[in-house]
Amino acid sequence: MSLVPGTKLGPYEILAPLGAGGMGEVYRARDASLRRDVAIKLLPATFSRDSDRLRRFTQEAQSTAALNHPNILSIYQIGEQEGGPYIVSELLEGQTLRQVVQAGPLPVRRAIDYGAQIARGLAAAHSKGIIHRDLKPENIFVTKDGRVKILDFGLAKLAEQAPMDAGDSPTLTAGTAAGLVLGTAGYMSPEQIRGESVDPRSDIFSFGVVLYEMLAGKHAFLRKSGAETMATILKEDPPALEASREVPPALQHVLQHCLEKDPAARFQSAQDLAFDLDSVSSLSSQQSKIETANSSRAWWKPAAIAASLLGALAIGAALRAHYSQSSAPEWHRLAFSRGMISAARFAPDGQTIIYSASWNGKPFDIYTTHPESAESRALGLQKSNLLGVSSRGELAVTRNIAVLGTNVFTGTLARVPLEGGTPREIMPSVQFADWARDGSTLAVVHAVQGRRVLEYPPGRVLAEYGGLLAHPRISPAGDRIAYLEYPDPSQDSGNVVLVTQKGEKKILAENWTDLTGLAWSPNGKEIWFTGTPTSSEGALYAVSLDGRLRLLFTGPADLQMMDVAPDGRLLLASMHWRSEMYGASSGDKTERDLGGLDFPLPYDLSSDGRTLLFFEGGSGGGPNYTSYLQTMDGAPPLKLGGGSCTGISHDGEWVVCFAPQQPNPLVLIPTRAGTSRTLPKDQLTHTFAGWLPDGKRLFLLASEPGHAIRLYLQDIDGQPAHPISPEGITNMIPRLSPNGKWVAANNYLNKILVFPVDGGNPSEVPGIQEREIVAGWSQDSRAIYVADLGELPVHVYRVELASGKRELRMTLSPPDPTGVNYLGPILVAPDAKSYVYGLDRRLCNLYVVTGLK
After folding, report:
1. Within the chain, what is the greatest distance between any pair of CA atoms?
2. Of 451 and 108, which is predicted with more confidence?
3. What pLDDT does 243 receive?
4. Minimal CA–CA distance to 389: which of 423, 424, 416, 421?
5. How far apart are CA 95 and CA 301, in angstroms?
6. Burial class (CB in 10 A: 0-12, 13-18, 19+), 399
């Protein structure tokens, strides 16, 4: 079915045809709701005649849509029109790789660049169990800015049977079982041709054929018919590349390794392939040496590391006495405005300091200064966060940042010359990054399906984590990366971790609090980090690569490690960091400061909106925190005991709590006289727990080992918890409807979903904007309250579940916004007359420190 301009497909209006092929017709369309142009691929109507095929198509499209990678086409939506399925994706400007190679062989450097990007996209897909099966130049797109995008993941497995009358024939179909032929004749792997089952190594062979074509300007195996072409693939090697091409021997080796007939003799993963292609580049020659050197290094056994850590923590007081500095270090202040500093680095000259800050309540910008100057100069990169400075004087920044938490941002990764110039954007949705010593390669952290992924270089996954993976720093030798991991992204407790380029992970310091930053020592033998093994103020520690700890400095304020210069000078921020709570109840004319100690975190309002449950997450709460009940009239709070208490029962008689570290079984604590009750321990790590109206069940935000966060339902009689949502729910507080039938929660696709408590399919709340979170429910359970987490002030809307109709109900902003870039948690009572919000305020000073060793 062809479509004419003006045709409506759901919310999309067809603008013009873009092309057609064996897998359907492609159109340019307008998404009126988001005011953007998209591409719509309308697949053949034959798909709708086979219910099993349609089901498999939906599964494949959903899996592909879950891939979030700069080298894979982004899928926005799938749907049906008159029985024919269609896919809505990002609209690309450029040309297919087929059109590019028709002009002749590519320059070697460009072929390497395109090949590395393709390999990274394949690696991302393979890591999620998705195989392309039909990789060819027609399914690879090159945008106008040189970015490569892989198209049509998984669709080859759904294609129709076609005659094999040409080497460049349409995709040959099949299913996934052994014995069925699948692929495009000139690009199929030997195992595909033989009808055997395939794995990621089949895509690597097809990649090799594509790489050969980019370098040679002609097909590797093409013959007059499909049968002859496939016979050539099974028995012959492609013609040698012309000597005049001057293809480096290392690149020829990569090509040959891809085109091995036996899958066991090929690259065993696309990650390894991407790494070798990066190594071929002259800019990555240092990485090759590092990989070789790294393979000869031995690692301490985890048991020995654990023992050394336990011993070190047990004699923490002795460490303080033994390693205190004999002479006081010198501190030289660099910045004099009032506000928050997120990151700071030494420039290559060793004197210039670059930092990102939000001064006097204004948006973040990036500044430069010198120790001999009291002035800072803004670079004019508003709403940007500094990630790193390369040895070549190039900045890595995130632009158009959105706040994920205190000192945690996400934005588009860009490279910016230090001397000024137009930023070059290279990857969306990045949270952290760091430069390798040679200044050519970045390690990046971004979110993929609810997990944080560390890639080095981009596309090669070294580590992934269900919580927050933060502050990666590449070692001076480039062979290891140190980073911090936080099980609960809303807390600052976690581990100092080391990972090798082979993905071998080792925890160097476990279950520390106030973890705020790290850097490598000048000689690369230690990692210097700020944190504390107790609930005291954060100090500066060093940990060796075998887990030996020593104290470098402790002071009266929290510290944040920013950077270390080769000569041993440090960039340290001292922080006055506290949390505050504000709110109002029905009848109040103004909101009030609800007090707390140093880090109160509001987590629940009683059903009548008059009682607040919060816990102290800072040093005032002790090592396991302390929870309190407080009436909204400002009366003194009632101390409940240790642990994170997050839910009040509807009759007000009980709260549900858990410890911030594992193991953290659920504990029911009475609000009046009575005995606490601990539920049986399970494998879940709890992030939130709340009560259903019947007082017999709990709804949980939790995760199993090795899995992302999801919603669970738990009977308090001891029955095991069972999930009521898929994985991928964020750590934002979920909210239960007043009638107890539904839970509303945010997922990692920036959507708010409503899940039936007693089972069934969830429904998506229409009209939700990016960065909006659930803040509460209306009294009739027909609408939710949502709050935007963008810039201050924060707006709270009532959104109808059925229609998405929005109504602004309140605007929230603290009396003094300086040092505040995030409000949360935000709690709104059903009548929207009572509300509470928390905030983190960080007021920082930046120093150059000398004399620490």
Report:
1. 88
2. 108
3. 67
4. 416
5. 51
6. middle
Sheet bearing 549-553, strands edge to edge:
468-474, 480-486, 494-500, 505-520, 526-532, 539-544, 549-553
What mean pLDDT comes out for the span 142-169? Answer: 61
Look-up of token digits 């392939």: 273
From the list 31, 134, 203, 840, the catalytic residue is 134
Query: In the CATH scheme, what architecture does the domain 95-280 have?
Result: Orthogonal Bundle (1.10)
**Is 134 tagged catalytic?**
yes
What is the rounded CA–CA span in Å between residue 70 and residue 381? Answer: 23
pLDDT tens column, 458-489: 989 999 987 889 999 999 999 999 999 988 76
Class of domain 1-91: alpha beta
Q: Are 287 and 474 in contact (CB under 8 A)?
A: no
One-character DSSP codes across 665-734: --EEEESSSS--EEPPP-S-EEEEEEE-TTSSEEEEEEE-TTS--EEEEEETTSPPPEESS-S-B-SSPP
Task: Say if CB 294 and CB 500 are below 8 A apart.
Answer: yes
Task: Return the structure tokens found at 615.
Answer: 């816990």
pLDDT score at 831: 92
DSSP 183: B
Distance of alpha carbon 602 from alpha carbon 606, whole angstroms: 12
SS3 call for 498: strand
DSSP assignments along 195-209, one per residue:
T----HHHHHHHHHH
Whether 312 shows a pLDDT value over 60: the answer reads no
Nearest to 352 by CA among 375, 365, 371: 371
The residue extents of the domains of the chain are 1-91, 95-280, 333-577, 594-843
Per-residue model confidence as pLDDT tens digits over 93-132? 899 999 999 989 999 989 999 999 999 899 888 877 788 8
Above 90 in pLDDT, residue 414?
yes
Class of domain 333-577: mainly beta
